[in-house]
Amino acid sequence: MKRISIVLISIALSACASSNTWEGMSEGDIAQWKQIGFDAQQAQQWQEEGFSPELSEQWSSAGFDLESATDWKKHAFKAEDAKRWKVAGFSLDDAIESREKGLTPISNN
Fold it and tell me: Torsion angle, CA of 26/27/30/35, rounded to 10 degrees?
């Protein structure tokens, strides 16, 4: 019985860790997140990773989910640059290596 209680408490705590509310955000912030089509949970998650509504919109519009946007951003890529590398068929590691050599992806435009 004790083991079941611990599991239930763990589940409850992990559910609280990912907030489904707008708690902690100003009305202006909430309006910005809603304007770009994010719900409270998405907004909280992106904000926790250091993204503003504006940056979140740039990355999501460029075709990146939160995990991939976070990875590319950690390596100093901007959303549009990362999109060019990705469209050109580069993985993040290949893009980093190529950029360090001074290379850029070829644009099809």
Answer: -140
